[in-house]
Input
Amino acid sequence: MQGRITNFTNILSLLGAFVATSVVLGLLGAGLMMPVVGATGAVAREGVGVFDALPSDFTAGPLAQQSRILAADGSLIATPYDENRIVVPLARIAPVMRQAQVAIEDSRFYEHGGVDPQGVARAAVSNLRGGDTQGASTLTQQYVKITLQENALRNNDKAAAQAAVARQGLAGYSRKLQELKYAVTVEQQLTKDQILQGYFNLVYYGDQAYGVEAAARHYFGVSASALTLPQAAMLAGLTQRPGATDPVHFPEAALARRNVVLDRMHQLRLITDQAWTAARASKVQLKVTSAQNSCATSTYPYFCDYVIAWLKQQPALGKTIAERTKNINRGGLTIQTTLDPKIQRQAQKDLEKRVPVGNGKSIGAAAAVVQPGTGKILSMVQNTRYSNSAGKGRTAVNYAADKAYGNSGGFQFGSTAKMFAIATALKQGMPVKSRVNAPPSGTVFYKSDFSDDCKPGPPWQVGNDEPGSVGRVTLTKMTEQSINTAFVALAEKLGVCAIGQTMTAMGLHSSMGEPIHSRNPSNVVLGSDYVSPVTVASAYASVAAEGSYCAPVPVVSVINGERKSLPLQASKCSQALDPDVANGVTKVLSTVLTAGTAAGNQLKDDRPASGKTGTTDSNKQSWFAGYTPQLSTAVWVGTPTVQKKMRNLTLAGTFYPHVFGATIAAPIWKDIMDAASEGLPIQDFAEPSDKVLEGDLVRIPDVSGLSESDARKQLTDAGFSVSVGGNVYSNLSQGDIVYTSPGAGSKAMRGSDVTLSPSAGYVPAPPPPPPAPKKPDTPKKPKATPTPTPTSTPSPSPTQKKKDGKTKPGPGPQSTSKP
Output
């Protein structure tokens, strides 16, 4: 009992302080005197001191509100939030909504100075009698209370958040008095409309909807500016007990509460009799739309996840990942992404047409479309449904992205790696028309065969799809036929480390974000490391952009809740290849589609394109990566979990004895690229120079008659390497150069070998003529025998003719010779 009296005395003291302060500030209007309940004299003076000592520096921080992730066309991808709130100015809230809220919560809002003396007295009497603790009920005080709670939650101060809404005991009285002091301060600092605007954006309307704009969209599918009288009355009635009257879960309570608000508006003459009657008779018509507060509910969940992960790496959003996450979910950001919904939808359809979701063979597929020269990710699709629980055709792993952005370990990329060897060869001066000796399938390569430190450990046996020796082939031919042994032989000459460096410069890295492990030549030459489709598409895009590599980027801008653009880390672009070299690579890869492993997958309308197939050992993974000047796309089809051979399988009604890069991935690539290119102008690639096509041809100087040292100097100065062949006979002095091979005046590629032929120093005497042949002995002439003179010569008989029609003289009659 003593405690209750003490509490009563303290409360009287503070109430006296409130009365005194209110009078001083002119907040009590004529006729609105609050009962003092004996709070006079010394008690009142003590109370004034206590009240004046309360803090008055009230600050409303920025509200937690949902962010919006938008596609390139402005359509909504997701709305990440901790609180589903959309801040709007008062002008975008329907006047009828303002009337309804003021009517039911604080009908004298525009008349008092932040505190309603009648309300305070009523609450004090009720509380002192031991009834339920009551609030003072003004909108200004509610605004203060909710703001204090919001500030505490923003600072992760749960105790302060609970104290801000305490209702029982001394803590409740102390909080209420502090709230009164703050309300007085707010009324001095803000206009009534500013206070009302703050309230509308702060207050909770139930079912995870904070603020009137989010509530209007959630319950009725309209903006707060378009609310009707019945809708506004229903929303206004929710704020007192939002957890027990929201129309989704408590439709009867919501309807009853709506009618209470309508009655109050009618009582205050804010609506006519006719409007009141019609609104009361109207049925509740909800159009519930849930905000996409997580990527799982987004139309494009995998891309949404990629965007969130990318934003968490942006320093402009905060110093730590935790701070950045908080800003994404509470900062009201407008995040403009690069995703093209038209390309995305069609790519998804094209992918699933050939590799259905949940197919019985557990074959996965993914594709990424990137814009050359900018790095913008236009599409990112895969043949699964987004789910955090594993199941047939379900996963939260983004197959198209790296580990950091989608939790995928990547896939071996096979012969798509060969493009980088071609780029390295052209960088080092080999022309497109140069030839490589391709050893037969099954050739074993040894550590000693390689020219740099990136060498195989144990002997490395390399096979081709087509067995047998292929001999000397051009870079173009070995690429279009994807001859493994030829590329290993090329890597011997170029250096495996050099090819790995080209990969890094062109943006290719493992799915773990590390450089391709070039110490293992198989990783670099035949693509046995693990990469993601978006990384491959970006690397190939650098060739399409004439050697300019731009890191993949999913976001073009972020605007915060104060309408300020944040300084993001834009896509970093660098010149990875000389433009002429890049054009040469395109020239080589173009025949893959016209005459090579992907023949038959040319784009429609004869749109120029280049690309490369890829298949790993045992047909476990397959790829096609290709590009036009405007678009670069990489498609992967393979086994995402259990590694098994893709042989003798049926997908979408088609039987595949073996799955290669050209079997499924290339047709998907063609379908995606044809659709994505629709409406884009047909552009040709730039032609490479004669130097890249033919090599750096230099005229061989005439060094005949020079000493070997002088001849060697002239040739090396001209850019050739020199070797010495065997001596030849000539009239020149011994050691002087007689001729070169290739010969003087002809052109050869800079860096190629010229062979010198030195003089032997004399011209040997001609060999003696062979002895004349011995004449044979002449036989003695026999005596002549008289020949009879025939009197006549008969014609040959038919029987004397040969079967071939020729005639033969017959024996004729016996004749006598003259004596």
In short: The longest helix spans residues 2-25. The mean pLDDT is 85.
